[in-house]
Amino acid sequence: MTFGLTPEQEALREKARDLAERVVAPRAAEVDRTESYPWDNVQALTDAGFMGMTVPKAYGGPGRSYMDVTLVIEEMAAQCGVTGRVVVEGNMGAISAVMQYGTEPQKKRAAEFVLSGDKPAICITEPDAGSAATEMTTRADKRGNTYVLNGKKHWITGGGVSRLHLIFARVFDESGAEQGIGGFLAFRGEDDGLVIGAREPTMGLRGIPETEVLFQDLALPADRLVMPPSGLKRGFADLMNAYNAQRVGAGTVALGLAEGAYRRALAFSKEREQFGRPIAEFQGLQWMLADMSVQLEAARALIWRAASTAGQNGNPFPDSLAAAQSKIFASEMAIKVASDALQVHGARGYSRNWPMERILRDARMFTIGGGTAQILRTVVASRLLDRKLPQTRDGHAKLAAADALRIQAAE
Ligand code: FAD
Ligand code: COA
Asked: Does domain 235-385 have CATH number 1.10.340.30?
């Protein structure tokens, strides 16, 4: 077993760090303050080849691994969480699903979009179907050679800036019979009926809009359905399998934010003097810094491991267990490390003139978006115990059925 990066990966990380420090870092505070999408950074990412890194060579990309992408995400997020998230969605999630499951024309089109800088939007969550994503009510009704979509998603990252959308919807055939859950490609600006709704006033990561996305008789040609390999009946499972890549990516943004906070705390502790010495001389802070470094290394190891499971056991995506484990740890670690790093800065950490409060606000997101820490623990426990758990739909249904039988027998 080799543990560590190849020389090529070291060079990739160096290139990403250089771009992040030179171009992305100086703009991070402004992106947060103005709550505006960092189009300049996106252009720089595109020019550097950091959008569409996972697109295979046959479709014009470099065909890099998820592991390679994590190296770029971490460096970007260490300077600007928003830019880190652009790299996630430019390489994982919707684009992963299309490049794996799509038809040739779908793959070609999606590849063109991300390689030219479009960060796709993935539309899963609905007001009444958050963690319980399988309860989504957005529907796609087959009408001849089109599907007509109606419904509403919310908290869609990139609403109003993304062009390519992958929409999870319940599919019904012409007779009205439900077929399962499928993914549909729609393009903002091209498909009438794809409507961007209200924007959320978010705590952090303010440079990417989180919006409602509404489908109002959105008529899509039938060939926009991205058919999951096991068919629509198991469509949700296949789509979520692809989504595991994005979970690793989200964990990596958390890691990068924490790494950025730690680097700043370490540097500040050597510069700031109190009691006639740099504050780094105080054991109370030394141990905080030591703990931060341990937590960061552990999170990085889990993330690299999760990313490296892609391609194993015939699964092109990261394993759901490893992805969930890494995101739980990295997201919770980032909140603690960002908070401790802010503490090292004293009052300066609490000022909006310094980056620490922004980093902490940004880091707070990752135990929620992309599957909450509670849901991911359920995913982990379910895999460990190899069964559906009572707190999930099927587990709950089985318990309810067993209860009904018991009551019937007692009567
Ligand atoms: P709920 O499901 O209502 O959960 C509320 C609380 O109950 C949570 O603490 C949860 O952990 C807990 N809970 C729920 N069920 C259980 C259970 N069975 N066991 C234990 N605890 C439980 N969605 C998209 O589709 N696309 C996006 O691009 C996207 N981007 C996002 C970006 C941000 C910044 C955020 C914050 C969210 C984003 N989301 C996106 C939505 C996100 O995936 C959901 O917020 C998440 O899945 C949780 O759903 P919810 O907010 O409705 O919480
Ligand atoms: N990777 C691979 N397969 C997955 C998966 C994943 N991450 N999540 C679910 N599946 C599969 C399940 O194994 C199951 O297949 P099975 O019937 O062969 O066991 C199928 O999809 C349905 O999942 P199940 O766990 O039975 O669904 P549920 O109705 O109990 O709901 C989830 C649980 C999956 C919705 C919940 O665990 C979840 O992930 N919620 C968060 C949603 C989310 O991350 N949103 C992010 C939006 S950006």
From this structure: no
Q: Where are the beta strands (DSSP E) in 158-285?
A: 164-172, 178-187, 194-199, 210-221, 225-226, 273-274, 277-278
If one residue of 35, 155, 211, 332 were mutated to test the ligand 1 pocket, choosing by the most ligand atoms within 8 A of its CB, it would be: 155
Tens of pLDDT along 320-344? 999 999 999 999 999 999 999 999 9
State the Cα–Cα distance between residues 224 and 182, nearest whole angstrom.
10
Instruction: Give the position, in ligand 2's atom list, of the atom nearest the Cα of 157.
Output: 48
Q: Which two tokens stand for residue 397?
A: 């249904």
Rounded-to-integer distance, Cα 66 and Cα 108, Å: 20
| Residue ranges covered by each domain of the chain | 7-115, 121-232, 235-385
* pLDDT, tens only, 126-159: 999 999 999 999 999 999 999 999 999 999 999 9
307 touches 65 (CB < 8 A): yes
CB of 378 closer than 6 A to ligand 1? yes
